[in-house]
Amino acid sequence: MPAQQKKLLFCTAGVLSLACALGTAAAVGTQLWVRGTILCSTGALLVNASGPELHKFIGHIQYGLFSGQRVRQCGLGGRPFQFSFFPDLLRIIPASIHVSVILFCTALIVFALVGAGFFMFNAFGSPYETLHGPLGLYLWSFISCSCGCLIMILFSSEVKIHHLSERIANFKEGTFTFKTHSEHFANSFWTILVCSLVHFLNALLIRFAGFEFPFSKSKDSGTITGAVDLMY
After folding, report:
1. What pLDDT, on the 0 to 100 scale, is given for residue 93?
2. What are the sequence ranges of the domains in the chain?
3. What CATH number was assigned to the domain covering residues 1-208?
């Protein structure tokens, strides 16, 4: 492939990696990871609410990795409540999983920035056959993509398997019991998915630029080795 086209591909991959790093950093600081509604089951059972009356007992909740807010509805109007995971909810959430998600988000930002730098270095500099060259580009893209996948897996398990929304909704609630009425992942979560796909795309761009995948043997070297073996 001509040098100009390689520069264009590497510049594109570098810009995409930089955009992913910035997007992940922005996503970490928002409360737009999960949105949902919570049902005050105790209040609904007390008045035997059904149909349109049930909406008076359905509140809202949204949260991110560090903070969030909920609006509880128990028939007397909405009452908002702001909360933070550290240190308020540290005792009721699966702390090890939650901290792991934050650490992998940090790793994703760091390796995306490293990948962006090396993509630009390969576009305008003179890379050598080490981690600065094609092998390094594959490595940084693979690590970034893996971090994004782990973030989604761990956070999904925290929300769905450990019922994170219900734990938050029932925080400091002694009389009323809340249940998750509906929940869905919001924009910040899907930003991580897009970033993972972008890093996978970057690996394909490296291959399209003419570099072989790591640990793959070329046919020419195999042919030469076979010819040498036949001589002896």
Report:
1. 92
2. 1-208
3. 1.20.140.150
